[in-house]
Write a structure and sequence with these properties.
With 247 residues, this protein is of the alpha/beta class. The chain folds into two domains: 13-127, Response regulator (Rossmann fold, 3-Layer(aba) Sandwich), CATH 3.40.50.2300; 144-246, Orthogonal Bundle (Arc Repressor Mutant, subunit A). The chain has eight helices and 13 strands. The chain has a five-stranded parallel beta sheet with strand order 2-1-3-4-5, sandwiched between helices. The chain has a five-stranded antiparallel beta sheet with strand order 9-8-7-6-13, covered by helices on one side. α4 (94-102) packs parallel to α8 (206-220) and α6 packs across α8 (206-220).
């Protein structure tokens, strides 16, 4: 007797935190037409309830929210390894983008935007491996990098410190450290780093690279003000100095 086995493939699920219901509904309808699951909530409290009820792959977070704003939510979520965050706001100032990245956002999009650009950015952060670690526990042959006592595992997207504690990185931080590990002891310009990161059009810029470097130094260096591992080469770029062993 033949047995029929049905394999269900779970769609990518997005949660939109947007207090403008018309905009939120527009995003949901568009993403569903792209064969994605999508829900919209209006504030941080509703977001917490949504997270408690199901898993999501990406968070689309408005900056200007009533009560707890987008920056505060982003900061709170980054206490633990978390979902990729795309921050969306009516503000277009570079300062706001830098602050959003410093709080742990993986990407930033200014209103008004083309929904297809949002879709491209969602696909980009997921392609860079931003899905929540552990979902599905897929087996992988991805390499592991070891440097200065640190261990970086691409299959689990974990960074383990010399004291054997897990160090939390955002998706963007992890991707940048991966690039540095692949190019040790070579000066990389900001433009080169941007190209290696494969960011979406009008995505990361030179200032965002500086911000990510600063955040990595805070987590890797004994003295971030006098970095030894990630050094600045004046007028040229950045140099990752440790010897990197690939396992």
């Amino acid at each position: 007797m033949r047995t029929l086995v049905t394999i269900l493939i779970r769609k990518t699920a997005a949660l939109i935190v947007e207090d403008d219901r018309d905009i939120g509904d527009l995003i949901v309808r568009f993403l569903k037409r792209q064969d994605m699951d999508a829900d919209v909530v209006a504030n941080g409290a509703a977001m917490d309830r949504a997270f408690a009820s199901r898993d999501y792959d990406v968070l689309i977070l408005d900056l200007n929210l009533p009560g707890e704003d987008g920056l505060a939510i982003c900061r709170r979520l980054r206490v633990e390894p978390a979902i990729p965050i795309i921050m969306v706001t009516a503000r277009g100032d570079d300062v706001d983008k830098i602050i959003g990245l410093e709080m742990g956002a993986d990407d930033y999009l200014s209103k008004p935007f083309n929904p297809r650009e949002l879709l491209a950015r969602i696909r980009a952060v997921l392609r860079r491996g931003g899905e929540k670690a552990g979902r599905g526990n897929r087996l992988s042959r991805e390499p592991r990098y070891e440097f200065a006592g640190w261990r970086m595992d691409l299959s689990t997207r974990e960074l383990i410190s010399p004291s054997q504690t897990k160090t939390t990185l955002t998706g963007a931080e992890f991707d940048l450290l991966h690039v540095l590990c692949e190019h040790p002891n070579r000066i990389l310009t900001r433009d080169r780093l941007l190209n290696l990161l494969h960011g979406p059009i009008d995505g990361p810029n030179e200032r965002s690279i500086d911000t990510l470097i600063s955040r990595l130094r805070q987590k890797l260096e004994l003295d971030p003000r006098n970095p030894l591992m990630i050094q600045t080469v004046h007028s040229e770029g950045y140099l990752f100095t440790p010897t990197v062993v690939v396992r």
